[in-house]
Every structure is written in structure tokens, then in C-alpha cells.
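Thread: quick sanity check before group meeting

JM: Hey all, I'm pulling together slides for Thursday and realized we never actually wrote out the predicted structure for the chain we discussed last week. Dropping the sequence here so it's in one place. If anyone has concerns about the input, flag it before I start.
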Amino acid sequence: MPLADGQKVLALTFMHGSRRRLEARLGELHALRERTDCSTIDSFAWRLVRRWLSLAVRLGHANIEPNQYERVCDAAGDLLQIHEVRGWVAASFPVLILDEAQDLTPNRLRLIEGLAIRLHVFAAADEFQCLDEALRPNPACTWLDKVCPPKELSQPRRTNVAELLDAATAIRNGLPPTSGKRFKIQLTSSSALAGAWLSGNLSWFGGGKSVAVITPTLGSFAKAALTWSANNKTSKGAGPYEISWEASEAKAASRFLAGLALKDVNDAPSVVKLLAAAGDPRAARDVSDWMDLQRRARSKITFSRMEIEKAIEQGFAQRRRVRKVEGRSWRGMTVHGAKNREFDNVVVLWPAAVAGSNDQKRRLLYNAVTRAKERCLVLVQASAHVNQPPFA
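JM (edit): ok, ran it. Output follows.
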């Protein structure tokens, strides 16, 4: 449907990595250039609550903070049951594009159901890529099956490498993936051997490429393999290579706050000095700018510990929203952290202990393997796993 003047397509997704990729892809379409608004569902929910805050309070949602994601989405879901609120959204965004719908929790799905009353909705969902076992049977996929006839998208978009496509199909269907050149499964019984294989792979195929080292959990096997690669050379001279490990912004903020000796009441110069010594220039700059704004707008010159901690947490959360699309870098992450992202090369570190059912293990490996555009190497710690799901 044509967009009227001032209208845009609203594009929502669950995670910031997918949001950045969706924004880039939609930006390639000439007809939608500068006519899309891409956001995570949680960010959009907060925009809605902030705009209709007094109404949200009357509905019983008082004193909500932007980082209280579940409460924000509950409030937004209630707001979207109201005709006037839906009309306000539809006036600016007559069309909604929804990605990774399979990850919607019930309160976020209620938000989408409210939008679907007025907006034209195009939703993409793949129940097999949902890693949350609490979302089975999947509420979003169940809802979509009821409200519209699904259309299966069978054309691969991330890669055209046959070995990667065949491996993903086999894992999805509960069959053993075939090890080859572009998709390879290698038994590495020790972390040193895994580290050597990792360094060799980076030496041969990592130059000028985006590389993700992905593991179901950052346990002793993965940590030791990364440490070996960062401190040693292989027999052929590859390495040492250090992989920066990604942590969630919430965990990063918690670690940062744990090292700060904030007082119950703090003046701005003391906070600036403390943050400068903590070794995170961006956090220091963000909080300094926030305190300066408070001074100019409210003549505020002292701040409680809680106020400073809240400003730091919001600053770390903002980093997710502005992080650039994957470039030519090497990084490590969990399978959950890699969801809906893509990299030229992927190395999967599969430890001896992986929690979950056989079906869950297939989902974990599938999500890891399908991040790769060019090649994928899977390093398996336990020999017994080679003859068990998800490898058999």
C-alpha cells in the first residue's frame, strides 16, 4: 500500500543485532529509503508508554523506568487495546514489518496483536530458531497460523555455500551434518588443541573478514581455548590471536558498577574523577554529560548513588542501540548473543557439557552454524558427542 506524506514503515525486531541488519537491508530499497523506522520491540514499547504516560498511569502502570522491559511491554500491551492509541500509531505507521517473531514473549505478542488490529503486518518467524524452551509451543507461531496463511521462504539469503546449507538442513531435520571443507567438524579433546585449530583457522581464513567464535556456554573449555589462542603460536607460526568476548550490556554495567566506590551522596567533580580512574572513557563522558544537563536544567549539583548507578546502566544500555553493523572484526559470543547476526566465518566451540534436550542441542548448533556466510568450523571437545545429537 502507498505511504502518505509523513508516514513510514515501522520495522520491529527482538534484538539490536537484527534491528541493525534489518535497518541496513531496508535502506537498500529505493522506495523505502528514509521511510522506515527500525526499532526493537522493547524500545518501541517505551516510546509508546512515554507518549501516553498519563494514560498508562490510569491503567495501573505507574513509576515505570525505561530499563524495566517487562513492565514497559505490559503497559504498552494495555495501551494498544485502546482505539485512540492504535489510531495514533497507525497515523504514522500504517505498515509493520516484524522480524524474529518466534522470540516474542506473551506480553510482547499482545503488543503486536494490538497493532495488528489497525496496521498491515508482515511477520517473519521460525519456531526452530527459538532457544527459549518456555516458548514451546510457540505462542507467536500459533497466533500467526490462526490469523493468516503462512508463506514459506525457502530461498537462502545469508549464504549460497552448498556445504553450509546442507549442514543446516541436516541439523534441522535431526540428521548428521556432513563434514567437508567449508563446513567442518573436528574433534579437539583438549583446550590446547582447540586453541591451535582456532588460531590456524584465523590465520588461513580470518584476514579482512568478520569472524565469530560461538559457544553454547562460556565454560572452561571455551575459556581455555581462547586463552591458548591469545598466548601461543601454532607449530606453523599462526598466532597469537586475541578474541574480544562480548558480554551483555547489563552484565558489563554490573561489573563496572562493582568496581566503583560511590558515596551515598556525590558531587559532580568527584564522580568525574572516579569514572575517569575506572578506565571506561565512554561511561565517564556519558555520565558527565548527564550531570551537566541536570545542572543546567535543574540546578542540581549533587547526586545520590542510585541516580549515578541508573545513569551508568542507561548509558550501557544505549550502547546496544548504537553499535554498528558487524564489520571486519573478530569476536566471541554465546549462541544466544549471536542470534540473528551474520559473519563471514564462524568457529563453534562445542564443550563436553551442553545443557538441554537433544532437540535443544540441535537448535543451538543450528543457530550457531547459520550465522556463517562463507565457512564454519565446529570444534567438539568430547569424542562421544560426535556420535550423538546434534551431530548424529
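AS: nice. The chain has three domains: 9-147, 162-246+325-387, 249-322. DSSP finds 16 helices and twelve strands in the chain.
JM: adding both to the slides.
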